[in-house]
Amino acid sequence: MAYGSLVVLIAAMAAGAGTAAAEFTGTASLLPAGTELGEDVFEQPREVFRSESSGGRKSYLINLGDIAFSSPLILGGTARRAGISCNTCHINGTTNPRLYIPGLSTQSGTFDTTGHLFNPKSDNGVLDPLSIPSLRGAHLLAPYGHDGRTVSLRDFVHDVIVNEFAGPEPSPEVIGAMVAYIEDIDFVPNRRLGSLGKLTGPMSASEKHGELLFYQPFPRNPTLSCAGCHEPLEAFVDHRQHDVGSGGLFKTPTLLNANFNAPYFHDGRYTSYAQVVGHFDRIFYLGLSAEERQDLVAYLEAIGDGEQALRADSIDTRVKEISDFLTVLDTALPEHNVSIVAMTLDTVDRELRDLTEQFPERKNSIVTAGAEERMRARDALKYVVLSVHQIGSAIRNNDFDGAAQALGRSRAMLTAAVPVLQASESWSLFDRQVHDSHFAAVRRLYRTGTDPALAPRRRLDPD
Amino acid sequence: MTHQFKAARALIYGPVAAWCLGILAPVTPIRADDALPLETAAAAFKPYVLEQISRCLTTVKGMGERVAARDLAGAQQSWLAARSGWEGSEVITNEFFPDLDRKIDAWPDAEKGFHAIEAKLFGAHNIAVLPVTEELIYNLTEFERQLRATTLTAQGLLNGTAKLIYEIGENKADGGESPFSGNSLAEMRVNVASVAAAYQRVFAPLTKRRNADLARIFAKDLAVIQALVSVPTLLDLDQVRLRDASESLVEDLAMVGKAAGLEKPRLGN
């Protein structure tokens, strides 16, 4: 059972109780009490890959990069042991607005990359969390890092792995693959945006006026405008750093798909466009009326939109991802590339086990119907896990032919499992009602298990 | 792993995946001279789990007294002791008594069962758990009654043991099954001990006779898991190795079942 499906890790609180409980525990969790990783979100960011959009398929390198991105094994220390991967913060290569780690976050969606927990050697002694950026369209958004300190995406990824998360030196193949994967993540299409970066099609008067304001020179400094930095023809960035009253030089963020990228500013200080517009109005003395502010917000919402940017998690999506991951073995096995095989098998195993937990076990107190169907789904997936495990067993025996045969069996079993999973879907966490009921129960349990005197306190989000 | 050991493992595991897929012919019918001892051994395993459940029930009753006396520390101690008995019986709970398992060990549930009590006692330091403790006593009493009336079968024990081994490999980085009490590691150790007991008492004699190499592999893989859970705290668990070891042991057990003429274990729980 994946007991931590909703990662509200309050367990460690018992350790600090100052009662007899203290002798029972020690810290029960690797992450601080009150941590949220947002794993209970029903709708997930949709992945759009440039390779697939153009009618092709994801290459070996892109799939390998996706695997590495989802693998705690490329990180070190606490992250590796806690099962944290790049994907934990950048869900499907985007952001994670729910992520909150006490001591490293000041509000949801922010994270201090120079804190003590994940790499004591990088600890700068200051709580200076940054908003988690989406990686959609990253190939258009250099330089990298909020402060734009790194021109090369490869160098930036290397820094994150080794310095921020104490990972071992990654192989050139792995880091190259991660760059290939990140560069393949595209923006979710927005039909309202024309090829010249202008709104197109039917638009409200407010949006239309907002667009005019966006291009309009600032009253006190006519050399500046919103569009001057957020250049519509350049994915709404200028690849430069500015101090816009943010307390330092930070690069211009893209506005594409930005509706899904809150909180805003490098430190995540704003949770809405209204707050952002208010900031610029104040700092640059724009003198906007309430209506004009609203118009700018309407415009930002229009250009920041995306088709199905979020959508319900599904069996098909999960199975496709696992199948894509398995394709890496078609190259790595003949090459006897043991380290790549090992990372792939580990990631596939985790994904399969996670998929299994989408079908609640029989002792789940919330889901009562479909018990037999759920059991069959769990049974089928566990046998796929064992089949994948046999690939690793064969490799350990230096039997690469046997490993290839086991891979074939794994694929066959995964394919055979799909109808079994689909037959159970109505009683799984892929069903919205089941999902919501299940996680409401988890939250109730954790609320019940919270001592008000010891509950972690959260700084309130700005209004 | 020695080369000889690896080779033996490879020989044994060659057909297992195909068998799991149902590609090979049905398993060899159990021989008459082995049938009785295996099922007898399975039935004879009942006192082991009955002892666990009886101990669990007695301790939960004691917990009820501590709760009535508003003795938080005493109730916590009783809860921990009771869990040992419960976890020691998990090779049969889900397989033979799923409805009672759902009432006794429900997850997630803030209203009934062990974990509702755990959340209050250990998380909230709240002693107001008398009604839910009384309900737990009722359900454990019923469990004990039903267990006495049930004949444990070899196939059922194979299924239950395989499910439990698989579950031991689940990720515990979030605090595991009993996060509020921090008792998850202790529970895993009891799980492993009960797996060892089920294997030794029910399956080992036949396996040793029919496939001595497999018996050696099982013993070795079991020892790996025992070593992995013998760490000081949950935080010291090597999750990757534990997962790998649990999957190896489930495979071993599947082969043990095959050697015994049983069907492949059912892993859905």
Helical region count of chain B? 13
Question: How much helix is in the residues of chain A?
Answer: 40-55%
Number of helices, counting only DSSP H or I runs of 4 residues or more of chain A: 16
- CA-CA gap between termini of chain A: 39 Å
Strand content of chain B: under 5%
Short description:
The complex is a heterodimer of chains A (463) and B (269). Chain A is mainly alpha-helical and 463 residues long.
Describe the protein.
- The complex is a heterodimer of chains A (463) and B (269).
- Chain A has 463 residues and is mainly α.
- Chain A is 43% helix and 3% strand.
- Chain A contains 16 helices and 6 strands.
- Chain A has helices at residues 22-25, 50-53, 60-69, 77-82, 86-89, 153-164, 172-184, 205-215, 226-229, 273-283, 290-303, 315-332, 338-356, 371-396, 400-423, 432-448; strands at 43-45, 110-111, 130-131, 241-242, 250-251, 310-312.
- In chain A, the strands form 3 sheets. A two-stranded antiparallel sheet of chain A has the order 1-6.
- In chain A, α8 crosses α11 (290-303).
- By secondary structure, chain B is mainly alpha-helical.
- Helix content of chain B is 72%, strand content 0%.
- Chain B has 13 helices and no strands.
- Chain B has helices at residues 3-13, 16-21, 32-44, 46-68, 72-87, 90-96, 98-104, 114-124, 130-148, 154-168, 184-210, 212-228, 239-259.
- In chain B, α5 packs parallel to α11 and α11 (184-210) packs antiparallel against α12 (212-228).
- The model of chain B is unreliable at 1-8 and 14-33 (pLDDT under 50).
- Classes of the chains: A mainly alpha (463), B mainly alpha (269).
- The interface between A and B is large, with 76 and 72 residues.
